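Teaching note: in complex prediction, the entire set of molecules is handled at once rather than each chain in isolation. The prompt given to students was simply: 'Predict the structure of this complex.' The entities are:
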Amino acid sequence: MVENRAQPVGLGRGFWTVTTILAVLSIAAIVFWSIFPLETYLPAAIVTARQVDHLFRFMAATGSALWIFVAGYLVYFAIAFRAKASDPPDAVGLQIHDNHKLEFWWTLIPLLFVILLSVVSVRIWYEVMLRPENGIVVEAIGHQFYFSFRYSDINGEVTDEMHLPLNVPVTLNLTSADVIHGFWVPAMRLKNDTVPGLVTTIKFTPRLTGRFPIICTQFCGVLHSEMDKQVLVIEPKAAFDTWYKMWQEKNAHASNALPAAGGQAVALAGGNATAGKQVFEQKCTACHKLAPFNEVLVGPGLAGVLHDPSRPNLVNGQPATPQNVAGILQNGYTGSMGTMPNATANGLSQQDIANLVAFLDTLK
Amino acid sequence: MAVAAVHSGGIADHIHPEPQGFVRRYVFSLDHKIIGIQYIITGFVFFMLSGLLAEVIRTQLLNPNGGFVAADTYNEVYSVHGSAMVWLVVIPLLTGGFGNLVFPVQIGARDVAFPWLNMLSFWIFPVAGLMLFSSFLMGAPTAGWMEYPPVSLQGEAGTSMWCAAIFLVGVSSTITGINFVVTILKMRAPGMTFTRMPLFVWGQFATAPLLMIATTALAAALAALFIERQFGVPFYDPTKGGSPVMWQHMFWFYSHPAVYIMILPAFGIISEVLPTFSRKSIFGYKLIAFSSMSIALLGFMVWAHHMFTSGLAPFLQLPFMILTYVIAIPTGIKIFSWTATLFGGKIHYTTAMLFALGFIGLFTIGGITGIFLAAIPFDLHVHGTYFVVGHLHYVLVGGSLMAIFAGTYYWFPKMSGRLMNETLGHWHFWLFFLGFNGTFIPMHWLGVLGMPREVATYDPQFAFWNRFESVASYLMAFSILLFFVNVLWSIRNGKRAGPNPWGARTLEWQIPSPPHYYNFKHVPTVYGLPYDFGQPLPYKGLEEELTDSPPPVTAGAH
Amino acid sequence: MSVASLARDAHGEVDQLYIETRELRLQGFLLFLISDCVLFSSFIFAYLYLRNSGQGWPPPGIQRLDVAFAAWNSVVLFGSGATMHYALENFKHGNWMRYMWFLLATIVLGAGFLGGQAFEYTHLIYGEHVTWWGSGIFGASFFTLTGMHGFHVFIGVCYLTVLVLQSAAGVYTRGKFFGITAGTLYWHFVDVIWVVLFSIFYLL
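The expected output is the structure of the full assembly:
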């Protein structure tokens, strides 16, 4: 087997000319991506959006340069080394099996690049996922086929636009009332799925006022395509406060119960305490003990919740009455105290709620 | 007439009598080459059907408000399109099709280890395919090829049919995987060590364990979905204690290796076509073989990069991101090695070679956008958008499909004895290249701007590029029509090919075109790699193969 | 493969074809068992994932499992593994009658295990808390996994019965008995799966 170890023919002027051209094109691509004004096409509505754009530009620049070289050499070699009509029919090329130095470098350089990219992307991952501080708690709930929003001091739900105040950190809890949806605001460069039975959280700080589309990105049924009509409105705090007050008043007399099929408050009459005890053991003991209020697992202990006068009010500030407890079970709670998942996330039917309330009523 | 091979009386010396009758020869055939052709024909039929579905998709997307089909129908169309392309086209063509067709001869074997199971494997395939398409009659699945619960729990009967159909074709895949692993481990010709195996065989050897192991994991996920839908047994329904995210884990644990099932054999095809039409040795044989095996292994460790938005704990996300980046290294090694193979060659622009060259350029784009998607912060932006649709079509069409075309032009003469028409082939290539890039490049940008995937209608701001993509897709479809015309015409009218029209060096080119049912009169002995053009062939014992002498048939029924 | 080298063809020559074909079948069968392992592993993953999703285990309202009974049933199954082992050993050493007795004992013990499963299922379905396949994630995971396993045992028992009939008809000789080897491997596989299932359902 002939192995050609000499410096191969062809690494001559043509090759270096092409290499220079490819280098120039790569630099042009790098410059292009570095200055590409992504924000004129898509505003950067939150602080970390710009960093995601930096990551995109970095990957686009390096990816373009890589591709330019690969495709460039591909085309150059395919043309430069084409079989010519003057070649004898059994002409063969240079039987080069390998070149250890070349192979070493083209293994090492990608490895170094992977390390570099890892460092860059872990940093930005940290900025997006872990660094943002806790903020005002808002909940977005996916439905077939719209998103609804809940705020700490607004009863019930906001069902059209989501409003947020400028420059105020937000903790957005996401869940779904039915199937998995994808909550995406392109201007934020951030999305997360809304999963029934789970509460997922993203944290961010809005930095730009405006109206930004909210788009569902996880197929959720026949009208999934239509689930791109809602908007996120980021506005100055004063305007936000006005909007907030408007919804507080609008929903003031809204039942605290999540609109069930009929949209009515929970019927508590048919509650069965024994069944309720089973539901409690199955669903609630992960976070609540049957113990005094201060024995907190995730949520407070629930001994005597409906009857002990020394206990404080419920987490949303309301007095502990059966209907108010039912409201929390149905609606869940998001606020400065944390998050209690709603009925759908917990998998509670109307009957379960009634049974639970009946059971809690037996606790002295 | 000196025959060097040792006669041990074993499998290599056992030639059964020729099968008689049309049914035994061409319908229920045990011959891996016939089975391979059956897979290829069936795969191409499903390809045409699924391609029609793709054109329904693109026609619907000509207008932001759709209007070509109802939203529900559209959802069925893209779901079946995706499912069929993965499970009824690319995987069967590359494994059961080209795998069966070529690698047993390349290793000097007479057939695969379990010919009867091979035949069974094939016949399951059209049945499963018909089952999948029959779902249109009962409300086809609408939640994409991924069918995430809980929405897939709401689907009509066709979703259960989808579960059953994919389960069944998975059985076919698993059997093929077992067959191929044993064949490669045990039935290589004397002297063919692993480091003398052609790279196409390495591609199949890396893929077969994936077929065997990953597919079974999908079977469990599908079975659970089926029994939940049909019998109310809760696995995924959160209102009954189940977990929708669990489906994603189980589904992607298979489906990520599945994408390597769809590309490793394609890498193998490229590694055969390039040296032949450069008239020189493949560059970096050992690294290419090793990188195939490492990609197969790493492929099992990255599944959750499809789930970055699903609510995984943040620290669980990180290892998947890093490991996905790492896969770029063996992939890059291959791409650089292929490019280096061209250096100093004598390159012939056959259609097969054009598709192989196109593969390298286009698959690289797909690989690069894959790295984009691996970066969690960027994925949190473009997951579930047309960026992903762009990426996946670059790797599966710009990658796998181009390799399938290359393989067809390359091995058609071996199997039919006739060459395909090169002029038509060149038209196919250039129109396809143009149409393909026009269809799928803009998708990346649309995804970044805000166009989600799996939608029947979209925001009017995306109208221009969608129309552009749809027109380009018609060009692509036309070019594929040229391909099929070429195939059908060439079977009858193609120029006679002879045993080795390309002057290639692997074993399949040292026997007649088409090969005899027994492949070799005498199993050769192998002395080296088949890629050193200009040197004598590294085989002994092939002297009689191209003569008219009768084969030494062993008495007795097969 | 010293035992396989006893394989002789019609001329009394070493049957190389059989030896090589047996190698293929053995490897293929082992790979099949590996892929079957993956199937069980996937459902085991599902069970552990669901069990871990924070609702307490077993969920309330579910009939408790009878660990003692299942332990006895396991002894029956592992016993059948031992008898199968001795069956194969005796065959290899040419002890025909002992081979057949051990084989029949395996079938009886295997069927006994299935009977025990049926008994346990009945207790769950008709017990104080009705617990069946659709009974939440407990029913889903327990009945699916033990049912799959029981189905594998059933197939095994059927196959061993076929072995009995084939052996009686003289199909297997001292040099050619791959069917018995495969049956033994399969039977041990079924035992190993049960060790895992017993541990994760009854001991965990």
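Point out the following to students. Chain A is about 40% helix and 15% strand. Chain A touches chain B through 88 residues (CB under 8 Å).
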